[in-house]
């Protein structure tokens, strides 16, 4: 077998696709025989080219699991010895790492069975070798073995920690330092014991030192690993950080504002600050770190993100999360610095800083509500001024902030309706759809808690909102309908003159004629319900808002709402009868893809279950059904005997 297998391995690495396919089929057939193990071991040790040796190791890692129990003790010893030789003698780093991966798999079965008692001794010796390659591969093995035989290391945990700390301080080799850092991450992830975790506090200065050097040399992936380690330490209930929190914050802020780094690296750094604000905010307060953090995070709100970047990684979004978390936990330390930032930059010549100034105020309004109420005149002066800014992004941020104020600064904000509402009514006619949408949201939040003060403004409000409802695209109709519902709830009986026209328009939006695409689109995280009497609707939110609106009107009109039941009940039943739209996505991909060896390295005989990648419930339909069900109850409550024809269908 060894000779034929060698030819097949060489053939598989050829550029000719037909030749590769033939070789792959024959390799899969030969790999079912346990004798493939010694054959692969032979090629791992003796093949002339590194690519063939690496391919042999990749195949061996996949196949040895199924064949290990069938091998004789002598052959098992031969395999183990050959793997150790490959790790210590092999000149090619990729082959060494591939061999280390095979050791990790074999150890999973051999060590617990007592078949490899000298493995740990070998690793300790190798990690202290004078040769850099040996130290590096030993640390790589410590990392991978933690996942398979981590419990075996427990009696040696103190020795391992001392070894890892020494290797992280290895001045002669950056590769060894990086490998040690990765090993620390693996052990920390494996360790649950609080006393053992506490010992990792001593590693923080070395982790920071390695990370800074890696950032300087362009190895950002290593810095990301360091942030993941800090994440583990921060979330631990044990007091791990101590005075090191200052150094961690300083390093994280340096990375956060370094625009030369990848967005993913900066995001990890910002996320660490966010976790500290969430879990260790008292430590931030103790070490006087809140203002330094805000001095970096507030300007990051003004940073223009690359449109090609993932929005979730954008620095402005991530920094807003940090500011919000700080405001929720340390409002007295956050409000004045943010207000100062907003006051200074609201008149900036840089439109992004004007946008950032009002965004920051909106972000902190929930956490700093008490303090903001005391300075409401000053805050509103900044935000309402921004609502008239010539730049649409600034106006959009201002309308967002007003919506946040309306939600979190009740009831004090309502006393300013004479200055706020005229600005919002101008904003809902803005040239920007984004500004319009956010202004509808702000108007809905603001009007919801108004009382009789809204009555003199009804004609003007409803004229603007009805025009917007009739002439806007779907996303604006959703938010506009929400605003109309809030106006109706606040106006109560005074809304009666507008009910007929609104209900007729709602009926137009609610007629459902086709629903066959629901399941397929739900699997793509979208719901598409098309053909609404000439109006194409891509999401179910509009029907949800409409049911909510009908519920509000039924409460206002009471038994006089009965006249509308014949028209609204079919629409409610249509929503109640929709499929929930739940979906399960199966991930059938193989994660083995080393140097394009994925096809031949997959274990075809394994009875692997397909991996469930995502189980999701499409809450758009569920929310719509919930709103329709609530509407049914309110219709029955308020229309009384007029509801008599519908209970059987409702049930």
UniProtKB/TrEMBL annotation:
Per-repeat ranges for HEAT: 379-417, 420-455
Biased composition (Acidic residues): 585-594
Domain named Importin N-terminal: residues: 23-89
Transmembrane segments: none
Subcellular location: Cytoplasm; Nucleus
Any one GO CC term of the record: cytoplasm
Single Gene Ontology MF annotation: small GTPase binding
One Pfam family per UniProt: TPR_IMB1
InterPro entries cross-referenced by the UniProt entry: ARM-like, ARM-type_fold, HEAT_type_2, IMB1_TNPO1-like_TPR, Importin-beta_N, Importin_beta, TPR_IPO4/5
One BP term from GO: protein import into nucleus
This protein's UniProt keywords: Cytoplasm, Nucleus, Protein transport, Repeat, Transport
PANTHER family xrefs: IMPORTIN BETA
Name of this protein: Uncharacterized protein AT4g27640
Organism: Arabidopsis thaliana (Mouse-ear cress)
């Amino acid at each position: 077998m060894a000779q034929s297998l060698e030819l097949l391995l060489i053939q598989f690495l050829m550029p000719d696709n037909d030749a590769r396919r033939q070789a792959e089929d024959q390799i899969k057939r030969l790999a079912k025989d346990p004798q493939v193990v010694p054959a692969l071991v032979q090629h791992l040790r003796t093949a002339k080219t590194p690519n063939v040796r690496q391919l042999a190791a990749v195949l061996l890692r996949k196949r040895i699991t199924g064949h290990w129990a069938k091998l004789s003790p002598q052959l098992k010893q031969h395999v183990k010895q050959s793997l150790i030789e490959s790790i210590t003698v092999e000149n090619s780093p990729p082959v060494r790492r591939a061999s280390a991966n095979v050791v990790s798999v074999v150890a999973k079965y051999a060590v617990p069975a007592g078949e490899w008692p000298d493995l740990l001794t070998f690793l300790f010796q190798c990690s202290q070798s004078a040769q850099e390659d040996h130290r590096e591969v030993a640390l790589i093995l410590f990392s991978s073995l933690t996942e398979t035989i981590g419990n075996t290391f427990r009696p040696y945990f103190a020795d391992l920690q001392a070894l890892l700390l020494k290797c992280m301080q290895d001045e002669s080799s950056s590769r060894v330092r990086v490998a040690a850092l990765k090993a620390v991450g693996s052990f920390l992830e494996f360790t649950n014991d609080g006393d053992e975790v506490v010992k990792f506090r001593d590693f923080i200065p070395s982790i920071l030192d390695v990370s800074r050097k890696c950032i300087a040399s362009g190895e950002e992936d290593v810095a990301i690993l360091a942030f993941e380690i800090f994440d583990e330490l921060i979330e631990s209930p044990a007091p791990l950080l101590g005075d090191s929190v200052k150094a961690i914050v300083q390093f994280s802020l340096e990375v956060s504002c370094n625009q030369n780094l990848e967005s993913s690296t900066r995001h990890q750094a910002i996320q660490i600050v966010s976790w500290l604000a969430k879990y260790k905010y008292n430590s931030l307060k103790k070490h006087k770190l809140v203002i330094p953090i805000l001095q970096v995070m507030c300007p990051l709100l003004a940073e223009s993100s690359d449109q090609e970047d993932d929005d979730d990684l954008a620095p402005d979004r991530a920094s807003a999360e940090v500011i919000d978390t700080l405001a929720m936990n340390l409002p007295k330390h956050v409000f004045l610095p943010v207000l100062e930032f907003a006051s200074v930059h609201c008149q900036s010549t840089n439109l992004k800083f004007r946008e950032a100034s009002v965004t920051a105020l909106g972000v902190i309004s929930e956490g700093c509500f008490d303090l903001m109420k005391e300075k409401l005149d000053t805050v509103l002066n900044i935000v309402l001024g921004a609502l008239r800014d010539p730049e649409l992004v600034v106006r959009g941020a201002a309308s967002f902030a007003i919506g946040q104020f309306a939600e979190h600064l009740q009831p004090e904000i309502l006393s300013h309706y004479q200055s706020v509402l005229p600005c919002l009514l101008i904003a809902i006619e803005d040239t920007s759809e984004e500004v319009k949408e956010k202004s509808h949201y702000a108007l809905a939040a603001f009007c919801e808690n108004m009382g009789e003060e809204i009555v003199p403004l009804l004609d003007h409000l409803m004229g603007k909102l009805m025009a917007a409802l009739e002439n806007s695209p779907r996303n604006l109709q959703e938010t506009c309908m929400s605003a109309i519902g809030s106006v109706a709830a606040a106006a109560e009986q005074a809304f009666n003159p507008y009910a007929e026209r609104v209900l007729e328009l709602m009926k137009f939006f609610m007629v459902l004629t086709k629903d066959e695409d629901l399941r397929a689109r739900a699997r793509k995280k979208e719901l598409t319900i098309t053909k609404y009497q000439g109006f194409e609707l891509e999401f179910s939110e509009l029907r949800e808002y409409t049911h909510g609106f009908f519920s509000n009107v039924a409460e206002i009109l009471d038994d006089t709402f009965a006249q509308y039941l014949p028209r609204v009940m079919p629409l409610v039943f249509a929503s109640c009868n929709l499929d929930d739209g739940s979906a399960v996505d199966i991930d059938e991909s193989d994660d083995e893809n080393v140097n394009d060896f994925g096809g031949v390295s997959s274990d075809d005989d394994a009875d692997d279950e397909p991996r469930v990648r995502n189980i999701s419930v499409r809450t758009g339909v569920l929310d719509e059904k919930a709103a329709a069900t609530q509407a049914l109850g309110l219709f029955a409550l308020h229309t009384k005997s007029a509801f008599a024809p519908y209970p059987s269908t409702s049930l």
